[in-house]
From TrEMBL:
Residues 32-207 form the KANL3/Tex30 alpha/beta hydrolase-like domain. This is Alpha/beta hydrolase family. GO terms for molecular function: hydrolase activity. Keywords: Hydrolase. SUPFAM superfamilies: alpha/beta-Hydrolases. InterPro entries: AB_hydrolase_fold, KANL3/Tex30_Abhydrolase, NSL3/Tex30.
Amino acid sequence: MTPAPEDAETEHVDTEHVFGHLHFPAGSPRGLVALTHGAGGNCETKILRLMCSRFAAAGFLALRYDLPFRRRRPKGPPQPSRAEEDRAGIAAAAAALRERGDGPLVLGGVSYGGRQVTMLAAAQPEIADELLLMSYPLHPPGKPDKPRTEHLPSLTVPSVFVHGERDPFGTLDELRDALTLVPAPTRLLAVEGAAHDLSRAKTDPSDEAVRAVVALADGEAR
């Protein structure tokens, strides 16, 4: 595994619609990345910092940002009845990032944030060129009979899934089966020994994830 890169130049972002941090590449960006957190986190989550640092080192302008529910209150889970507002926040982050640079746009997130990204992309496929989904919450823990897959047949954006081998929100085999519903190219990266919180994984999955995103963009799917 390649050592995690040192943070490049960063910039705090605090506007009406976007709150987070930008990580700048050394030269002109080859692409854009916007990543958000899960139900219990925020834009300071370790896995987001690792991913954005890695993307910046690979030449991407990378944004890690808070969803609207986290901007409303510093702690506590999102409200299902207001999930549409969180998807609007994702769209706002995507628009703000496109104003900063050119190139393909990768949208992604952790758990709840990633699920909202897939739902937005299923409804608006033009919103992104590729997705990066970390610890996708395929079903509630212990309830595989309640899969969150209704929108996957409408997901036409190429996607990389990074998933722990011991994730209670879905086994690797369950996720592989679910990905057969997605008509777009996909990649599944298993994180050895990891559960749902990839920030606590014994190995840093960011290097392999960034390489998978680039490879998928170049047409090396599945």
